[in-house]
Amino acid sequence: MKVVVGSDHAGYPLKDTVIEAVRAAGHEPIYVGTFSPESVDFPDYSEKIGRAIQTGEAERGILVCGSGVGACIAANKMKGVYASICHDTYSAAQGVLHDDMNVLCLGARVIGRSLAVSLVQAFLGARYIGNDPGGERLARRVEKIRKMEKGESIL
Fold first, then answer.
1. Measuring CA to CA, how many Å separate 122 from each of 29, 96, 115, 116, 129?
2. Cα distance between residue 70 and residue 67, in whole Å
3. Of the residues 9, 65, 72, 86, which is catalytic?
4. Are 27 and 3 in contact (CB under 8 A)?
5. Active site (annotated) includes residue 27
6. Left (φ > 0), alpha (ψ -120 to 50) or beta: where does 80 sit?
């Protein structure tokens, strides 16, 4: 699987660890920057990740900023991008398994290298099960999210 990875200046120190974890999990990382520790705006990298997801250049993405929060907010503004900040392995896997999450957001100032590797493994090792037999309730919930994204009411 192709995995687009991006970081702002605060996430820059953790980016090599994330890229290597993607490779170690047997996937192909595509790094979209930043390429130095100089200050940049995180929404730029959220958009780069989102565009790669939207065009099919990558199936999943990983965003790294200082807290993970800003990058996550920005990424979720893009149609077809389902991002979540995860600092525990349960959420990193569960977000994919049940919610069809396709972008993992990490806070480089919140977690260390070892946890980052574990989170990447959990995220990339999971697959959405809403289309599997018995996954109807998950698919129903994800479909509601898709309707909300289109501006439709689900109530």
1. 16, 9, 10, 10, 15
2. 7
3. 65
4. yes
5. no
6. left
Which one from 9, 27, 86, 98 is the annotated catalytic residue?
Answer: 98
- Model pTM greater than 0.85? yes
Show pLDDT as tens, one digit a residue, over the chain (155 residues). Answer: 999 999 999 999 999 999 999 999 999 999 999 999 999 999 999 999 999 999 999 999 999 999 999 999 999 999 999 999 999 999 999 999 999 999 999 999 999 999 999 999 999 999 999 999 999 999 999 999 999 999 999 99
What contacts 42, CB < 8 A, 6 or more positions away?
8, 10, 63, 65, 70, 71, 74
Look up 87 and say whether it is catalytic: no
Is residue 80 classed as helix, strand or coil in its secondary structure? Answer: coil
